[in-house]
Specification:
8 strands, TIM Barrel
Length: 287
Amino acid sequence: MGVERRPEWLRVKLPSGPNFRELVGLMRTQALHTVCEEARCPNVGDCWERKTATFLILGNVCTRHCAYCAIAHGLPTELDVEEPDRVADAVATMGLKHVVVTSVDRDDLEDGGAGMFARTIRRIRERAPGCSIEVLIPDFKGDAEALRTVLDAGPEILNHNIETVPRLFREVRRGGNYRRSLELLARAKEWGRRSLTKSGMMVGLGEAWDEILGTMRDLRGVSCDVLTIGQYLSPGKDYVPIARYYRPAEFAALKREGLAMGFRHVESGPLVRSSYHADEQAVAAAT
């Protein structure tokens, strides 16, 4: 017996509108990638019409093949050293007040791409000084110096997604490690940095309710500030299937649980993704 048909609350309108078309043009002319497109995010129309986007640096080919992610995997091409400048130019052109920068995994690079994250942060600071910066980083294979390189550039929010519960982690996040991800978030706090820390997880992969709460407690155990929880939507038949759809009331209950645990902000809903309304999340977490 398969999962039920996609419920009404998960249906979204096709992308349209003048701001969406303007952003499409900007991304193409600047040869930039966004996780919004590469990962087939259901919120691309909403976010782009609001002139918010998550820039994907270090190319669009990932060295890992996670069982939930639609981004292409394989052997990446060489680094584009001018990419940080183009991202900064796009942020300035768009007049963004908050920007999210993420990347594919680049296990082929000695620093995992940390240096390019730092350069991108610094270029944005130069060209859009009023813009707050959130980075959604890979685990850098546990390299503490790579993490230090990113934190030294001073992002307002350091995000690393836990994605799923420990029991399912190895199946879902191939090449990752649950404890290593928690350790990354812990280090950011232990080193006394001012950046808020953030993480996100998907539900609907076959986890139990108590397992979700356990993962949330693990994140609070390393003083994670912001949490996002959303419904897993399989990109296709070659990916982990959807075990079930969570109802809006269940997401509301998870938000209440998270706030009771001490998270500064919890964004929980069927269509929530790590960067969904990230500008509003940043404001809410900072107050």
